[in-house]
């Protein structure tokens, strides 16, 4: 279907940018869905009379012949490059999956890398590329995601969010064990875990909470979407993510925008997002062959550290978001590149 649109659609630039997202869907839940939804607010989609094709690396719907057709028609191709496939997280034929992703990577007229980590990973696994591009972090509406000035919790609240399937169980299992140890060491805090999780993960985590006697300090909030996300983040005091090699998680950016300092695995693209004052990175062995998780002792100490001098850290988190993740700048860069590519046609 998308290949047919590539053939039938497209038009000569008339000075007005019209974007086709090549099959990528939009929505309120999930990074890629939210990203496309934000783009469509500023660059509405046209499936037939488009001047530019905008592709997401994790949604490679166009075959090589369709990409080449767009090139022949001189329709600019812009690629948003996120992660790649590698053994640490993908059990299948990662080389074959990367070869599919590499088609758009090699033919795109311009590439937006979500982080320097994304750029280096693409260069490592997708082969050589000679075209232009830049690192452009994901972004949020800073008027939508912002601190709650009335936030006054009885005890500090730590927040973890995200979709949890079996292969992501490690990040919350380790967090619960570290949180239990931190409480034993005297930490007085609560932990909230929000987001969809599959049945296996929910059963395992609820069992672990019971085993560790955390029932009064840990709560599961269930799924949420972008409409309630700002209030979810701004009601907490600090954010925690132990995901290994996360490329450029919107959840971290949303947390920072709401004034939450971030405790994180010092891997992937997250260290680029979080400044020293706005977060604490827990050391892990970086690489692509296996997932590495911070030790329970490090997690426990990190939980205490991220809550230390909290007002200063919260202010630094918001400052970082204003500096680097304003959606106005993000949209501005897209607009500039769209216009630049139009001028070259």
TrEMBL record:
Keyword Glycosyltransferase appears in the UniProt entry: yes
Domain of life of the organism encoding this protein: Bacteria
Keywords: Glycosyltransferase, Transferase
Glycosyl transferase family domain ranges (all copies): 146-315
InterPro entries: Glyco_trans_1
Short name of one Pfam family: Glycos_transf_1
PANTHER family xref list: COLANIC ACID BIOSYNTHESIS GLYCOSYLTRANSFERASE WCAL-RELATED, GLYCOSYLTRANSFERASE
Family: Belongs to the glycosyltransferase group 1 family. Glycosyltransferase 4 subfamily.
Protein's name according to its UniProt entry: Glycosyl transferase family 1 domain-containing protein
Record organism: Thalassospira povalilytica
